[in-house]
Amino acid sequence: MQWGSVSEFVAMGGYGLYVWISFGVTALCMLWEVLALRRRHAAARAGTNESIHDQCVVQR
Amino acid sequence: MGLAHINWFKYSSPQAFYPLAGRMMPWFVAAATLLIGVGLYIGFFVAPTDFQQGESYRIIFVHVPAAWMSMFLYVVMALWAGLGLGLNARPSFMMAQAIAPTGALFTFLALVTGAMWGKPTWGAWWVWDARLTSELILLFLYGGVMLLRTSIDDPRRADRASAVFALVGVVNVPIIYFSVRWWNTLHQGASVSMTAAPKMAATMLTAMLIMTLGFWMYSIAVTLARMRCVILERERQSSWGAHHSHRETMEVH
After folding, report:
1. Residue B38 and residue B217 in contact, taking contact as beta carbons nearer than 8 Å
2. What is the pLDDT at residue B52?
3. Cα–chain-centroid distance for residue B195?
4. Which of A50, B46, B75, B129 has the most CB atoms at less than 10 Å from its CB?
5. pLDDT by residue (tens digit) across B76-111?
6. Residue of chain B nearest A53, judged by CA positions
7. What chain B residue is nearest to A11 in terms of C-alpha separation?
8. Looking at the partner chain, which of B49, B66, B244 has a beta carbon nearest the beta carbon of A26?
9. Which residue from B48, B59, B105 is facing A22, i.e. has the nearest CB?
10. Which 3 state secondary structure label does DSSP give B165?
11. How far apart are CA B2 and CA A52, in angstroms?
């Protein structure tokens, strides 16, 4: 390992800003995609349940 | 029982695929988490400092996997689109639909991390060289495929139109890949070559390949998740979609 301390690790030899923005944006985008898909799935399921309800109402 | 007796089409129906995708997802999530964890560890704590670029080169561990996935997912999406057109198979179109946003996301990430790497290395966030320009065109192609789908109301016509668009756009993928060889680009040449010995340290290469595998498993997991959404959304009107979702909800309670 080439890091003597935590601050050295964060500094990334002076390139910290570029390195951490790269990894940060990537992590945020992937997490956002997962959360967005969860919401979309919940909405899709709610939608199908509503359509059952509609069908029941229509049948009655 | 011979292979001929297995019903290979059993899992190609949305009704059978929905629960199967649900069962497969956690495995791909686990594999992605593990691989990305190991990849990050090797990338930050085992791989040495680059003698030319210092620590800035570590951006490679997200940049190259994202760029590879952006091209790979486009080809896979185009294959499903082509299969859909050839067989007139709705599940194939749904697969193409499920892949597109993740491909677009990785294209965006390849461009952003590339800018973050370009600034300290070349002194510019962006240059109009063949590699960068063709990757930007890839983002527009993904955008086109997705926009075309949302702008056409009839799902069958939307499927066909976006599939044709995806197939035409696939010519851009070899252009991206070979751009560093065909043109004199500021972007560096291929990091990994099938014919030449690796130009980088073994630990750097290992971290990059493990991260790529991790992104691949992630892509499969989110594609399966989106496929489930697409199935529910499209079957909303049909009795099955309602029945299945309802039954699963009942099981949860």
Report:
1. no
2. 86
3. 25
4. B129
5. 999 999 999 999 999 999 999 999 999 999 999 999
6. B242
7. B55
8. B66
9. B59
10. helix
11. 41
Radius of gyration of chain B (CA): 21
- CB atoms B232 and A45 under 8 Å: yes
Residues of chain B with pLDDT under 50: 1, 239-242, 250-253
Amino acid letter, residue A14: G
B positions 64-83 inside 8 Å of A (CB): 66
Taking alpha carbons only, the member of A46, A37, A39, A56 closest to residue B246 is A46
Q: Which two tokens stand for residue A17?
A: 């800003």
Instruction: Decide: A53 and B253 in contact? Cβ < 8 Å.
Output: no
* DSSP code at position B194: S
Q: From the CA of A14, how many Å to the nearest CA of chain B?
A: 8
At A39-56, the pLDDT tens digits run: 999 999 988 766 655 555
What gap in Å lies between CA A24 and CA A36, rounded to an integer?
18
Which of A1, A3, A5, A18 is the best mutation test for B, with the most CBs of B within 10 A? Answer: A18
How many Å separate Cα B67 from the centre of its chain? Answer: 9
The dihedral of CA B199, B201, B202, B208: what is its sign?
negative
Residue A33 to residue B49, Cβ atoms within 8 A: no
Å between B6 CA and nearest CA of chain A: 31
Q: Calculate the alpha carbon distances from B34 to B4, B27, B61, B109, B221 in Å.
A: 37, 11, 15, 21, 13
Q: What is the ipTM of this complex?
A: 0.86
Query: Tokens 């851009």 map to which residue?
Result: B172
Does B159 touch chain A if contact means CB atoms closer than 8 Å?
A: no
